From TrEMBL:
Coiled-coil segments: none
High-level lineage: Bacteria, Bacillati, Cyanobacteriota, Cyanophyceae, Oscillatoriophycideae
Name of the protein: P-II family nitrogen regulator
Source species, domain of life: Bacteria
InterPro entries documented for this protein: N-reg_PII, N-reg_PII-like_a/b, N-reg_PII/ATP_PRibTrfase_C
Length: 99
């Protein structure tokens, strides 16, 4: 049995849960074929985000694997959201079993 690894760029976005619909819309607009959303807790420059009250003081983490050019545009489009919301985003080159 043989297989080959695919290459891509993993983009991770951690931000306020109130941004979820807006972030999904952005991913859809960019033609992203898939993503994963998970609740996130922690502390940073915007204080503690413990998710102890639904819809308040909660964060999400979104992960998607895309082409390099898509990751460029995604990071550019996320920039303006930082003006009014707690949000970080980063990318990493990855190889794995994905299409």
């Amino acid at each position: 049995m043989s297989f080959s690894l695919s290459s891509g760029v993993l983009v991770t976005i951690i931000g306020e849960a109130v941004l979820q619909d807006q972030l999904i819309h952005l991913l859809t607009k960019l033609g992203v074929s898939g993503y994963t959303i998970i609740p996130a807790q922690g502390s940073g420059s915007h204080g503690r985000r413990m998710g102890d009250m639904a819809g308040y003081n909660t964060n999400i983490e979104i992960k998607t694997i895309v082409a390099a050019t898509t990751s460029d545009q995604l990071l550019l489009d996320l920039g303006p959201l930082q003006a009014n919301h707690a949000l970080i985003a980063f990318r990493q080159s990855v190889d794995g079993l994905f299409d």
